[in-house]
Amino acid sequence: MLGKVGAEVNILVIGELSSLATHLKFLDSALLPINAAIKLSADPESAGLLERGEYLIGIGFVAAQRYIQTVYLAEGLERDVALKLGENVTDCGTHVHAIWQGANYWKHEDEWYHDVSRGRDLKRNAEATRDKLELYTDCDDYTCANLLSVILKGEELSLYALVPVLEAWTTAVSAYKQAP
């Protein structure tokens, strides 16, 4: 699948995408059996399968976020500009914006739960992340899995399936940089 990124893209970016693809394949080697077990289980939530899948998907989003950051920094773009490039996953935002929000959610969700369970309000950044994430999916249960399903348009959940999405975005970043 790799190799669709245009030659004008920084060689560092190509190496990072290759490393990310390897990482996502590794995560899929654990996720795909969980997906199969979920289909066979009478109660996948009680069996802990949904949470195990959520954990892997969250880690995958964080790895993808690092790649996204590497690209926009290497290309000299501001994050807000970079996250608006590429194909839209919904009318509200791009695939990469959705991945970015999913990664932020995964990294901070426990902290948010901790604050709320102690009667504290969510911090402004936390509220902003939840608001942005809710453009794509609700944040109640298994947010990362639901978000991945939206990004993949209901196809079987696979983190490696994000690679072509990120390749297309990387090409869009390059085209943006080349534009007059």
Query: Based on helices, strands and strand pairing, what is the structural class?
Result: mainly alpha
Strands of the widest sheet, in order across it, are 1-2
β-strand percent reads: under 5%
Shape: globular
Helix fraction bin: 55-70%
Backbone CA Rg: 17 Å
The average pLDDT value, as a whole number, equals: 86
Structure description:
This protein has seven helices and two strands. The chain is an all-alpha fold and 180 residues long. It has a two-stranded antiparallel sheet with strand order 1-2. A hairpin with a 2-residue loop joins strand 1 (88-90) and strand 2 (93-94). The chain starts with 10 loop residues before the first helix and ends with a helix. Mean pLDDT is 86; it is low at 1-7.
What is the gist of this entry?
The chain is an all-alpha fold and 180 residues long.
Give me the secondary-structure topology.
Blueprint: H1 11-40, H2 49-74, H3 79-82, E1 88-90, E2 93-94, H4 95-117, H5 124-133, H6 143-151, H7 162-178
Antiparallel strand pairs: 1-2
Helix pairs in contact: 1-2, 1-7, 2-4, 2-6, 2-7, 4-5, 4-6
